[in-house]
Fold:
Amino acid sequence: MNECKKCILVLFFVLLIIYPLVSASDGSGPKNIFNKRYVLYSLDLSKQDGINRFIGVMDRAAAAGYNGIVLGGPYHARNYSQTMVNNTVFLVNYGRRLGLVLIPGHFDQRDPLNDVYDDLRGKNELAEAVPVVDTKFVVEEGTPLVDVLPNSGFEEWSGLQVKGLSVDALGVIAFKDVTVKHSGNASLRIQDTFLNPPYFHGRVMTSFLSVEPNRVYQLSLWVKTEGFSQPSKFKVYIRGYDENETGMNVLLDAYRAITSTQDWTEYKINFTNGNKTKLLVYFGFWVNATGKVWFDDANLSEVGFDGVSQRNPVATARMDPQVVIPNAGFEEWSATSGVPFNLSVDKLNLVIYRDTEVKHSGNTSIRIQDTFLNPPYFPGRIILNPIAVQPFRTYELSVWLKTQDVNKPDKISAYVPGYNTNGYQNLTLFTEGYSYGMGAFVSSTQNWTQYKFVINTFYETRIRVYFGLWYNTSGKVWFDDVNITELGLYNTIRRNFMPVVVESSDGNTVYQEGTDYVVRNQKLSIPTGSALSVGSELKVSWYQLGNMIDGVAPASACQERFYTELKKDAQRLNALFLNPPAFFVGYDEWRLANWDPACKELNGGVEMTGGQYMAYAMNRTEKLIKEVRPDAEVMVWNDMFDPFHNAVPNYYAVRGTVEGAWEGVSPNTIIMNWGTRQNNDARTNEPQSWSSLKFFAGRGNHQMIAG
Structure:
């Protein structure tokens, strides 16, 4: 589905249920029978303002005589908070008083262990992954980790948020301070924790930090105080975790004495991490207090027991062969035509300009401005010439960007399709981040900032790279210094049939994990006694987390636990929605699928097609719903099961043809048909939307259509 359907957070979608086409008794031809009308609405049950708006929708729907509302949302039911449970119970009962039935629509292809807002801690269990094959690694001398903490000087902020860190009650007890600081332009001030009941936390917390096992680390921190009432309660708390972010041990839980009022003072605390390779670091206060404390210039670095780091060799990825982007800094322009070499731009000197005054480096950047001057589609794009890459490799693309008075910064985009897609339709290669990348993270006016995008090349040997705007905008955006690097062991997924394989460069030797290497984040640690030594060249293959275009990984439908978790959802939804008459399955735009080797094992040693994969997923999902509620109807979007929509030979990054996916849809399933394509289909010589309706009618399915 195009991006429009995602707008149902603010618009509701009227659905009319129709039965298979029948003939009128007078012989005048087929007629439609509309006997039910529903509203489709997507709602975050955790947000009260959205609940209030939805109550208004319910009132209007009831007044207009609708039968009910199909209710979707961003969370699987297994992750409902108590607030969400309470809101659900209230809305279901409110709807019943109005004569409206609420139908839950919380089944989709997202990994149910890792909802859209989660941090993918359990990604190894269910998430879809794509292969990365024969990345070159080279063993080199190890170097100590230095300054592991992100934004350790508290210099980078986005509004009230400290980039890279979590802080309790920002804007209430915690503040950016640009007047009092140890160095740089800012510090973090925490004051009057009594204003943050009931636990009175005033803490700084990191996200997961990757470290090497069996090392000594030192946390250092500069602290200043003024009239702080609980100086003995300054605490440092550090947790250690395994590589998959489980198996927690407390590595440090210690108070450090500060004084009530003191000038900037540095504190250093050493600790060992044992076999843990992920850390969560907390420092601050867990106490009801008054007064002020400033933090600045925190640092986490590796030290040895004698103060000198001792490190084993490590192996890291090398780009092989080397990829060079010509004119990546936009320095070279034709003296005769005035156009840049090795790239294309939209409407030079109308919306795109060479800028020799504002640039990140060198002498030139490219400025895009006021794309409203380029109707009807308003493009303002930089298009790099095709870049040669290796298939099934992981690359990181980066670009520097600056903005001034951009009225729609969320429309600043990056797009990386394959150049020869080997049949894959509109193959967007991003496996990290959002469909067009940077827009959600760009401000209307900001200084030079680097943005990075990670892709898996799939079958591609050439890619195209686009930066710019695809929208009617005003304001200025500068781009400069594009770069590409190859990554190794990035977002590695490991489970049955998804190993990490390390071989010699000639492929004649397969090395043993644990004895010859230990898998870490984007590298291999080489233990004492390994057959590998400094200078060894390797080929490393693994499976990379397969995020779809919205930055969320789908689950693998070939993992049994996927259905175990969905059944838990169905049971909880059945209870919360008071035995609803139907369940809505939101399988649509499933653009990355069928890469899990477990699918072949499940299919008797024969590779599944994409259609078999979708059919299997739908068949299993309908069965588990019927196990929970045998009399419930099942609804599903049409697109992934529709030969006139997405069930076609080549669909994005689904492995194999999606034809035949409809075989997994029961004739009793209600099809939510949102097809609106009016162009004729060559197979039927009729509009695709009409062909779709007739296709499912011919299979005996009742349908809902947008009205």
